[in-house]
Amino acid sequence: MKTGLFCNYENHYQNAHRVIFEQVTLVKYAESLDFEEAWITEHHFNDFSVSSSTLVLMAHLASITHKIRLGSAALLLAFHNPIIIAQSIATLDNLCNGRLSIGIAKGGPFPEQNKHFATSMSESRSKTLEAMTLIHKLLYYNDVSFIGEYYQCLGVTIYPKPLQKSISVYVATSDDDTLKFSAIKSLGLMGGTQFSLNTLKSNVTKYRAINSSGSDRLMLARFFFVARTNEEAVSEALPFLRIFSQRMKAVKNQVQSDDNHSQHLMPISGQKASFNEEDLLENSIIGDVTTCRDKIKRFQDELNLGTLALNPCSLDLQKKLENLALYNQEVRNYV
Fold it and tell me: Which domain holds residue 130?
C-alpha cells in the first residue's frame, strides 16, 4: 500500500494565497517523508476549497518536487474541453517526468458548477465518460476522429504526447454504469472521504464482479489525525471536521430543496453520503496510534488498497506537519 497526501485546499482563514502555499509546504514535506503520492482536488465557485485550477496547481507542484507522484482527485471532465484537457495532461506528464496519475469524476454535489458550466446533472456522467474515451484516444493515437453525443473531432493529433506509455486513470464514482465502464477498461477506483466502508466495499464488489484484476488500484482518501490519546486526536480534529460538516450540509440542503437535484448525492448503495460529525469521525482515521493502525488494517483487509491518501485534520499548519511525521514514525511502518 502506498501512502499519499489528499490536498483539498480548505480555506479556513479566508486567505486563498495562504492556503495554496501552505498546501505546497505540506506536499514538499510529505515528499521528504517518502510519501509516494499527492492528490489534488478540483472545486469551482467555492471559497472553502480553493482548487479550481487543478492542473495549474499540479504543474507548480511538479516544478518544486522530484519524486512524489501527482494525481488529480478528480478532474471534472464534463466541465472541460477534452482536447484541451488531453493536451494539458500530456504536457504535465512531461513536466513531471512521468509522475502523473489522473483521477476523474462527474462533479458534485455542487449545483452551481453544473449551472455555470451549462451542464445538467442528468448529463454530467455521460459527458464525463465520453470525454475520457476521447482523451484516451488523443493521448496515445494520431489522426483521431471521433463522433460522440457531446464531442466531435476529425483527424486530430495532439503534441506533445505523454512521457508515460500509459498514464494511470482512476474514477471517483458510486454509480453502477460508471463502475461498469471503469471495470471494462481496467481503470482504478477512487474512494472519497465521506463514504463508509460498506459503500466502498459495495463499489469494489461490483467492480470485481466484472474485472477481478484491476480493482487493486484503489485510491482511498481519508481525513486523519493521530495523537498519543484518542481524546487528544478527536479534540484537534473535530473543529476541522465540524467546519467541513457544516459546509457540506448547507450544500446538501440546497440540493435537496430542488427535486431536480435530489438524486445527485445518492451513491449506489442507496444511502446518502453522510456529512454528520459522528459519521465523519467513524469514517476517518483519527485516534491514538493503535486505533489508527487498526483502522488502516481494516481498510486494507476489506478493500485491498493501492493508496491511502491522508488529509490531516487540523487548523494549524505546524500541527499538520508534525502529524505527518508522527504518522510516518508510529503508524506507517506497522500497517
Answer: 2-334
CB-CB contact of 233 with 226 (8 Å): yes
Residue 318, domain CATH? 3.20.20.30
Report pTM: 0.94
Burial class of residue 283, CB neighbours in 10 A (0-12, 13-18, 19+): buried
Q: How confident is the model at residue 86 (pLDDT cuts 50, 70, 90)?
A: very high
The single-letter code of the amino acid at 252 is: K
Give the model's confidence band at 253: pLDDT under 50 very low, under 70 low, under 90 confident, else very high.
confident
Per DSSP, the three-state class of 265 is coil
Query: Whose CA is closest to 152, among 128, 129, 130, 180?
Result: 130
CB 244 within 8 A of CB 252: no
Q: How far apart are CA 88 and CA 303, in angstroms?
A: 32
State the Cα–Cα distance between residues 295 and 142, nearest whole angstrom.
46
Mapping DSSP to helix (H, G, I), strand (E, B) and coil, where does residue 8 land? Answer: coil
* In the chain, % of residues over pLDDT 70: 93
Name the DSSP letter for residue 79: G
Structural domain total, the chain: 1
Q: Which residues are registered as beta bridge partners of 5?
A: 38, 310
In the predicted model, what is the mean pLDDT of residues 184-206?
93
From CA 273, how far away is CA 268, in angstroms rounded?
Answer: 10
pLDDT tens-digit series, residues 299-315: 999 998 999 999 999 99
